[in-house]
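Methods — Computational structure assignment.
A single polypeptide chain was analysed. Its primary sequence is given first, followed by the predicted tertiary structure written as structure tokens.
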Amino acid sequence: MIKIKRTYSPKALSKTNRDFKSAIANMSVREAYDFYKEHRKKYCYNTAETKHHFRKMNHERCSFCTQFIQDFDDAMTVEHIKTKRDFPQKIFQWSNMLCACSTCNTKRGTRSHYPRKYLDPTKITDIEKYFCYKIDGTIVANNTLSNDDIAKAEYMIDLYKLNRKNLVCNRRKFMTDLMSDDKFYEKLNLMEESSQNIIFLSVFA
């Protein structure tokens, strides 16, 4: 995970957020979530406007595994930090939304949000410090941090399954390329932020 600079809220999304909150104002959490499911065609968050903002904000990368999302318009999904089921009043709140690849989104599923452990890459400036990359391609918590910070890193690694097979293989290949080519890092450093290999820049922090 790397730091992401959040853009301003999409205009249409802000209006949808206001309209939806007004509609569920007197409902319980369960009623509000059921209302959303029944009216999801009317109240939408993954719109062309939202995708445009995420494309700019994330450089077409997942907020968690930081992989480049190849077919951004179709494959990009919206991850809700506080889940839709538990916090329906925040479904259309821009600060509660992050851009994710479909795999990271699916791996988390509907698991609840624990605010004391969750690392929001749009709010933590030095988020890279929480993680270390090993030569075998795995990502682990930085054991030089406090026990609380180690627990946060481990929570995020588990929540989004950041040691799934394809990610580990890609990181391991990167390490191999790096060690076999003295100029590999120089070339990497010249790549644009949309490059697939941007995930590994934090290795050098």
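Note: The first helix runs from residue 11 to 23.
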